[in-house]
Amino acid sequence: MTVVLDLNYFIHLVTENHPPSQRLRRRDRLVVCAIVLLISLLAWAMFLVMQAQNTQSLETAAASVTTQRDLNDVFVRAREGAYKITISEEELNAYVARKLAMKQGGALAGVVSLEKILIRLEEERAEVITVRKVFGKTFTTSLWLTIEQTENASGEVATSFDLSGGTMPILHKIKKGGRFGRLTVPQGFLLLTKSAHIQLVDVFAEDIRNGIEEMGRIQIRKGALELDPNLDQSSFFGR
């Protein structure tokens, strides 16, 4: 038996079952669902931004440090004596806290809301966390950085900083820049906090030069910074 398919018949069925007004209502529902989803994602992102990072372990470890070495002097002596040094995460944070306390009335007078700076040392990267208070509520922002060193044919080493913590969890072609609260943000969002970070670089310029730029080999380990001055190098700090 031969069955003849009538195209006009099927068009009639489709239009009969789904009139234009119903199709428009379905499209409107899809648009509304998309808007609701977008608003929900934005609300969740804002919630994460408002949630400060938990820095209690970093603060407790820094407070337990009994020695109060001037790390800039430690860097200089290591370079002059050509020996390796290891700086623990807790000693680094204790030093940063002491130096910030001395600078609050001077170079950082304009950053009135600044509470503290903490550094979390992870394998091959560091996270610099800024803690502020606004109307009594604690907010945190952070940036990740890695140290890149290249050696030329004559043995000179160039040191630079890459403000990146790897790639984003889903968008693998986009680099992670840091965190606003507990929300991980792409590298481009660091432009929003660039001026504050430049101020901090100015405060710690001498430490950065002696402890990073003029060191021959630098290794960021989990919980420690390993520095070796035993290479000639030319360096630059990109910002």
Task: Report what the structure shows.
With 239 residues, this protein is α+β, with helices and mostly antiparallel strands. It has 2 domains: 7-48; 52-228, no CATH class. The protein is 40% helix and 26% strand. The protein has helices at residues 7-17, 20-50, 56-63, 71-81, 89-103, 194-203, 205-213, and strands at 85-88, 114-122, 125-134, 137-151, 157-162, 176-180, 183-186, 217-221, 224-228. Strands 2, 3, 4, 5, 6 and 7 form a 6-stranded antiparallel β-sheet that branches. A 3-stranded antiparallel β-sheet has the order 1-9-8. Helix 3 packs across helix 5. The model is unreliable at 1-5 and 233-239 (pLDDT under 50).
